[in-house]
């Protein structure tokens, strides 16, 4: 009798367990924080509407700085002075974030002293490509798309922090990608004028 009872109990547990696991997985999926999910590509009527060029995936040390420069429509250093979230509406198909910079030094597509506002798709902001007011940066930005949207060239590769002394800081990914450049190669910090020189050299190679 005892053996039959144990056998029945084990059978009931075996039948119920898969359902319980599935239910738990479903609950976990429903309660997953939004920041863990990758942003979907923006679409209208099933068509992707962000048509920004993308840099090729290449091994470190084989990266082409001229290609990186060629992809940029705006290159400048400046300070973030305003951030404004703009919801989608009848005149604007996507929710975006407008970031305004005070341009300090300009290489391409901007002018010193200009207050430049660029618009970024909210999905990029949600995935971590964010700014903060007062932040001092050097940016390589793609030319605006047909909807007037842009982002930094190569994602985080096209964005550099600037320290209190005005030096542009290169992270490990920058050092690895640009190590063959005759001006920036192997450096962890540089002046803006060095970047202007590197861009000029790269432009001559195009």
Care to describe what's here?
The protein has 206 residues and is α+β, with helices and mostly antiparallel strands. It has 2 domains: 2-32; 65-205, OB fold (Dihydrolipoamide Acetyltransferase, E2P), CATH 2.40.50. Helices cover 30% and strands 25% of the residues. Helix 2 (65-71) crosses helix 5 (192-205). The radius of gyration is 24 Å and the shape is globular. The N and C termini lie far apart (87 Å). The model is unreliable at 9-41, 44-49 and 56-61 (pLDDT under 50).
Quickly name the level 1 CATH class of the largest domain.
Mainly Beta
**CATH-derived topology of the largest domain:** OB fold (Dihydrolipoamide Acetyltransferase, E2P)
Q: How would the global form be characterised?
A: globular
Structural class: alpha+beta
Radius of gyration: 24 Å
Tell me, rounded to a whole number, the average pLDDT: 77
Strand order, sheet with most strands = 5-4-3-6-7-8-9
Strand count, sense and barrel status of the largest sheet are: 7 strands, antiparallel
Keywords:
single chain; 206 residues; alpha+beta; OB fold (Dihydrolipoamide Acetyltransferase, E2P); 2 domains; seven-stranded antiparallel β-sheet; two-stranded antiparallel sheet; 5 helices; 9 strands; 30% helix; globular
What is the element layout, followed by pairings?
Blueprint: H1 2-31, E1 43-44, E2 47-48, H2 65-71, E3 74-86, E4 96-108, E5 115-121, H3 122-126, E6 136-141, E7 159-162, E8 168-169, H4 172-177, E9 189-190, H5 192-205
